[in-house]
Each structure stands twice: as structure tokens, then as C-alpha cells.
Amino acid sequence: MSSPEAAAADAAQVACAHCQLPVPESLLEPGEAHQFCCHGCKTVYAMIHAEGLEAYYDLRGEEDALPVKNVAGSYEELDDPTFTARYCSARPDGLVTTELYLEGVHCSACLWLVEKSLSQMEGVAEARLNFAQARLKVMWRPDAVPLSAIASRLASLGYPAHPARYGTKDVTQEEERKLLIRLGVAGAVAGNVMLMAFALYGGWLSGMEEEYRTLFRWGSLLACLPAALYSGWPFYRSAFHGLRNKVLHMDLPISLGIGAGFLHGLVNTITGRGEIYFDSVSALIFLLLVGRLLQLRQQRRASESTELLYALTPSSARRLGEDGEARRVPLEAIQVGDRLEVQAGEMVPTDGVVESGASAVDLSLLSGEAMPVEVRKEDQVWGGTTNLQDTLVMRVTHAIRDARVGRIAEMVVDAAQSRAPVVQLADKVAGWFVGIVLVLSVVTFVAWRILDPAVAIDHAVALLIVSCPCALGLATPLAITAAIGKAARRGILAKSGAALEALGQLKKGILFFDKTGTLTHGRMEVVALVGPDWVKPLIAAAEAGVTHPVGRALRKACLDSGEAPTADEVELVHGGGLVAEVGGHTLHIGSPRFVRAHSLHDRGFAAQVEAWSQDALTPVWVAVDGRVVAAAGLSDRLRSEARASVEALARQGFEVHILSGDHPSVVSAVGRALGLPEEHCHGGQSPEDKLARVKAAAAEGQVVMVGDGVNDAAALAAATVGVAVHGGAETCFAAADVFLQKPGVDTLSDLVEGARRTTRTIRNNIIFSLAYNVLGASLAMTGLLNPLVAAILMPVSSLVVVTNSFRFQFVRAPEERA
Amino acid sequence: MSVLYMVLPLALIIATVAVWAFVWSVKRGQFDDLETPAMRILHDDTEARRPKPSDERKSPNS
Which residues on chain B are in Cβ contact (under 8 Å) with A52? Predict the structure, then answer.
């Protein structure tokens, strides 16, 4: 996707010794054997070698590596008694256990590194990482090593730790275990009953003595008992509830089939005449439970929404005591009225008012705005935002639950719980399926009563058994499991099958895009730079230590032309820009208003500002020694593939809108660049506004929301299908149904196509299984069915469904596309 | 063929024992995480090949 020039440039670049990503030229150290792309990677590399854990690189192999997220921190809040009381459990042998959620775990080498490195620490008895959930269970001796040391070690390796804090996870764990036990019993039963059934089949073909026939029949009955009574219980219970609430779903015909089959077999075994179908019944129960377990496993993968709140804010804060000393305490210990110290680069823990200090904060988490906002004494600050420049001391006004970010998280939970579950295709079929089967069995019974009364009941029951929708019950879970796996291999992580089905069933609807980070890169970049080349090193020097995104963007743009001198003196002026002394020159860099106040302006730069505001670029002026010599236009650059993606989605039937917290003029400019009409571009939206818009649209039709970051979380949960885009908070996944791992929006049309194919596969599965049911029913009604025929028919229909589910292609291979 | 009267109940008893063992391991949480152990198997091989840099450091990992 990059231009040939860019590709050539990439090839010439040196790869980081740790993460293999290209090292920016500015960070190359000549003469060094190993180069690194960032300080984090360098630190981790040194640490890995110091510990003798170089095998990590072998294990990681070809996996995509990520640069290390550098998180400094003492983690002393983990030793605080409040934390211990809440999150740790003490064992009788003196060890303490707790669970930590780790960021940055993305491959098996990470698993090895984490477990190996921790187990080499003195005092750590056990460290086991659950890869899928990125949760580490650690058992250690508190008097030998504090938890903070363990967390620091993890952080220095590139895996920042957070307390794992939710309890509802245990409930679904219990449910899943119970289901697994039922499944195990059903499997054991099915196998054994099948063995005995084979003996009986052999008996028909070559004759069997009556006593042994009786033995096997009673044996089958006895073995089938636990399956029919215990394993099959969930189906009966669900069918009963469905009947009571007048909702027809697949469990009703299933219960009918199993129940009729078992009872009929029971009667026949006792009376000693007629056929028994225990083999089909137990196999049915087993296969249907497999489908059920698949569905439950997928549902469990969905993260808890309450986790969202805690992942958005730091787990601790620095509280100032009466003596003025700052101590790290867990977030839960913070109360209204506490005074907190927030340093530059840290997240604001909760809502409050600034008591002293002046700085700029990055509100993008709450508002989506890429431009930082100045704050000083008496200004409000919000939890979840990032403090950019200077240390702030704030007074807490809201505890985290009542903070703005907390209330947003609650909105997410509410929206997610009130969302109507998508009615699966198979359940739709169930309704009239039951009716038809019942009618047919009555017809069969009556017809045979006239023809040959002795076998009437046998044939009617045979019909019920063979028409039991095993394949139908498997049709959806199998296709969805396969689809989720295929999608995951393409970097599309679907939280549940329901989302894929919903997306696939969408013929047309409204698609809302967030702007910042989704359609754009989410970073301020210098798009246009007007000025002489000699100014560039001076600018780079002046912006060297600035954390402000505008400053960083300027430095990046000016750095690759020659080397940068060091600034002698830099002074940040709030509300405008900075003043710097570089190599004897005085520089003023900042907004046109700021620079104009300190220097002469002319040379047509004012006209430039006018032109740029048309494109919604943020202007920055540079004055050297009192004269404006350069100007830069900055914006959050649109992703290169955005326009093509939007057009593709429009072709797939969506009406595309933009929802953004950024200024309306900027949003309109982006809309124009994408070819969208003015009325589809909505700027200046707060998270609450976005939620309202999505809800309104959802009331009238299907809505897909594509977003990134907390400010979209509630809207994502309220949409019919919410899609979170790479680069957003990990937590966005908790609110969204689908998470696109690869950056950019071009995988979105792949997702839609794949979802449509999945729905088509499910539909095909249902048609196949219905065809087999018709065949089986005809055989039963005409009296040609016996247990052997039934035992052959059923696996064949299931096999067809299985192969169909796994062989379909999620997305057409790229070379086939136009 | 009268051995069937002994063999069949025996088979069922063995099946019952197997099911009991399965239930026991599920309750102890051995089936909760099926992905991670699959990755861990590979790790041991690599570890055995590489000599440990400091031999006096004992590894408490079982």
C-alpha cells in the first residue's frame, strides 16, 4: 500500500534489534552493533540478555513484533493494604495469589518470557499466564518480594500490569464447566451405546439369541439413562421455558425427538418388542451439546463491560497528604476532596479542579479532539485525559464512578444490555418446523393405525426421532465458529457470532464513522510547510523537549533535513507557543496571534492562513529574530485508503456518515475529501451526542458504528453492530462487537463481505439439513426406517453441515478481486 | 458367549470410572484454558537446548 519511493526508503532502513520495525534515522547510533527504534526496546533487549532469556527471539520467529510500550512506574500502590484486601487471597502456606491483567501480550514468545522471567525471581512460587485473556496468575511470598517488584519487572519487559478486577467472570466459568461435564457424560454414553447398537445390527443381519438381544437392549437403556436425564436436561428446560413464554425455538423439536425416542425405547425394552433408538438419541444429545458448548465459549470470550471503567483510568494516583508528601494509592482509595498530583505524561485519575499549576491536557479520549486544551487554576479536568506539559495539583470533585468517564462506561453497559439479541436464522426456522413435524407424525400415526395398527406408534415415533434437528442445531454454531476463526486470521476479531450474523443480514443501513483515529491517523502532522530550509534545524531544536502534539509534529517534519543543533533556552508560553534561543537566534513558534504579538509579520503569510483555513489546517507561524519567516499547516491527516473504503462501503449498500467531536469545519473538510455530502458530516459531537444520534438511527433501521476510543464506546454498544478500529483503547473492544486489528478502515468492507458469506453458509446449512429431514421423514412415514438406517442418515447430514461450514472462504482472495 | 454377562457390565463400569475422572478434572479447572498449554509444550524443548547462564540460581518453576 505504500508508494514505490516509500518502499525503497523502507528497504534502506535498519531494523530494530528487538522488534524488527525500522529505526528512524534520527535514532541511529553509528558504531553500535545493535540499533533500536525506541528506548523501550533497548531496555527490554538488555534485560532479556542479562537474564539469559535470549531464546525469546528464537521462539518469536516470524511473528509480528510490536515496539515496547515504555511505562515507568513504581507500582507501590500494589503493596498498599487496600489493594491486598481487595484483590489478593492469602493461602494457608503463607503464599499470596492474585491475578494481573497484562498489556502487550501478543504471541507465544511473550508467554514464555513472562512466565520464565517471573519464575526466575526470588520469592515467586508460580506464574501462569492465560494467553487468551492476558491474565497472569501469580503466587508469591510477600516477605521475600513485594508485588510492586513483580509488576516493575513485568513493566520493564514491556508488559504493564493492571489489577484484574471483575468478579462476574466466575459465573460463566461455572456455566461452561457444567456444560462440559454434561458433554463428557453424553460422549461416554454415545460411544458405549453405539458399541452395543453395533452388536444389535449384527444380530439383525446374522441372527442373535434372544437372551443376548435382551441383554444389549437393557444395557443400552441403562447406559442411555444418564444422557437422556442429565445431559439432555438443558434442552428440556429451555423448551419448557420457550413454551411458557410462547417463543418457539430449536430446543422444542429437539426435546420432542429425544424424549419420544427415549420413552419409546424404554417401553419397548420393558415389553421386549419393537425397535429401540437409543443409539440415535445418545448421539443426538452429544452432537447438540457440542454445538451448545461452541456457542457458550464464544459468548464467554466477550469481555466484561465493567472492566471498561477500570481500564480507562490509571489504577492508582499520587495523593498529597497533610504533610505535602505524595504517596501512591489505589484508585478506590481516592475520595472527594483529596488532593492529587498529576505529572506530565500521566493520566488524570478522576474528575476534579486544578488547584495549582498550569498545563495542557489531551482530551481526545473524551472529545475526540486532537488539539490539546490549556488548563490553569480553577479549571476543570476530567479522569481519563492525559496531562501533557507540567505537573498539576488537583482537588477531586467526583469519585471515579461519578466521573464523566465513569458515567460513560455505565452508558456503555446499559446500552449493551438493552440491545435486543439477534434472532438466529435457525431459530426462525424452528417455529414452523415444529408444527410441520407434529402434524406429520399425527398423520403417520392415523394412517398406519388404519393399515397396520401394531406398528403405528413405532412409525410415528421414528418420524419424531429422525426429524430431530441435529444438523439444524449445528448449522449455526459450526458456521460461526469457522467464520470467527477465518476472520481472526485476517485480523478481524469478532466477539460473537451474533454480530457476524447481524452484519451479514444487513442489506442496507446507516454507517457512522468516527473521525479521529478511525478515518484519520489520530496524530497531528505537518501537511504543509512554507519557508526556507535553514529554519528547519532551528525549529527542530526548539521543539526538542516538547510533549505537545503540535510541537512533536513540527520536530518530526523538520528533523530529517540535516542534524539539529541543541536549543540554548526554551520557554513555553501558555496559550500561544514557545520562545527559544538557538545558536544565537531568538525563535517564536506558535499560533499566528502569538507570533504576531512578538514580531513583525508580512510576506503574505496572512493570506496563507486564509487559504489553509479552507482546508481546516491549523496554522503555526515561525518567527526568527523578530521576523516571520516560515509557516506550517497542521492537521490530522486522512488515511490514504479512507476514500476507497468509503466508496466500497457505499457500494455495499451503506449510507455513510461522520460523527466527530472535532470542530464542524474540520469535519466538513474531511467529508469533502471523502466525497460525502455536507449533511452527513456531524462535528462537535460529545460522547452523549453521539449516543443519541446512534440510538435515533437504530430506532429506524440498522446501524453500524465504526469508532475508536472511549468517546465512541457508548455509541458502539448502542449500534446494531459496533466495530472498533485498531489504535483505539483496548477497552473499546468491550463495547464493540468486532475489533479490526490492522490499522485503517480497508478491512471494513472485507468484514461486511465475510459476514454476508457467513450468513449465506448458515442458510445453506439449514437447507441441506432440511433436505435430509425430508428424506428421513419420508422413510419413516412409509415404514422403511429402522435404527440402522437412522444411524446412517444422521451422521451424513451432520457431516455435510460440518464440511460446508469449514470450507467456505471468508473473503475472496485478493488476486480474484477486480 | 455367556461371558457377555460379565464383560458388558464391566465395560459400563470402566466407562463410569472414566467419566468420573473427567468430571474431577473439569471441576479442578483443567479444561478452563485450552490454548495456553498448547503453547507451553513448545517452550520446554527450546529451554532444554540452551544452557542456563547462572547455574546457582535454582528455578522454582515445576
Answer: 50, 52-54
Spatial distance between the Cα atoms of A53 and A114, rounded to a whole number of angstroms: 10
Nearest Cα to A585, choosing from A541, A649, A618?
A: A541
- Identified catalytic residue from A514, A662, A708, A737: A514
Q: Rounded CA gap, A133 and A164, in Å?
A: 10
In a structure prediction context, what are the per-residue pLDDT tens digits for chain B, which is 62 residues long? 789 999 999 999 999 999 999 999 999 888 888 878 887 777 665 554 344 444 444 444 43
**Mean pLDDT taken over chain A:** 80
Q: How far is A95 from chain B (nearest CA, A)?
A: 14
Option in B26, B36, B43 nearest A130 (CB): B36
**Residues A639, A521 contacting (CB under 8 angstroms):** yes
- Please judge whether B42 and A108 are an interchain contact, meaning their C-beta atoms are less than 8 angstroms apart: yes
Chain B positions in Cβ-Cβ contact with residue A212 (cut-off 8 Å):
1, 4
Residues counted in chain B: 62
| Grid cell locating A263 | 420413552
Q: To the nearest 10°, the Cα dihedral for A419, A420, A423, A427?
A: 120
C-alpha cell at A759: 450468513
Q: Do B47 and A124 touch (CB under 8 A)?
A: no
d(CA A544, CA A63): 34
CB pairs below 8 Å between A and B: how many?
Answer: 91
- What type of residue sits at position A668? S
Q: Which residues contact A194 (CB under 8 A, 6 or more apart)?
A: A279, A282, A283
Residues 6+ apart with CB under 8 A from A403: A313, A350, A351, A382, A383, A384
Distance set, CA A609 to CA A189, A289, A404, A481, A603 (Å): 79, 67, 36, 55, 12
- Mapped to the 3 state alphabet, what secondary structure does A651-682 carry? HCCEEEEEECCCCHHHHHHHHHHHCCCHHHEE
Give the tens place of pLDDT for each residue, A800-817: 888 888 887 777 655 444
Q: Would the CB atoms of B42 and A59 count as touching at under 8 Å?
A: yes
B-chain residue closest to A133, CA distance? B33
Q: Is A514 designated active site?
A: yes
What share of chain A has pLDDT > 90, as a percent? 10
Contact A222 B18 (CB under 8 A): no
Q: Which residue of B has its CA nearest to A127?
A: B61
For residue A33, the SS3 value is: coil
> How far apart (Å, rounded) are the C-alpha atoms in residues A627 and A624?
5
Tell me the C-alpha to C-alpha distance, in Å, between residue A227 and each of A223, A253, A399: 8, 17, 52
Give the predicted TM-score (pTM) of the model. Answer: 0.70
The count of residues in chain A is: 818
CA distance A818 to B17: 60
User: Please, what is the end-to-end C-alpha distance for chain B in angstroms?
Assistant: 50
Bridge partners, A630 (sequence order): A622
Amino acid at residue number A371: M
Answer yes or no: do A181 and B39 touch at CB < 8 A. Answer: no
- Residue A195, chain B, CB below 8 Å: the answer is yes
Q: Sort residue A783 into left (φ over 0), alpha (ψ -120 to 50) or beta.
A: left
At residue A205, the 3 state secondary structure works out as helix
Residues of A in contact with B52 (CB under 8 A): 52
ipTM of the complex: 0.76
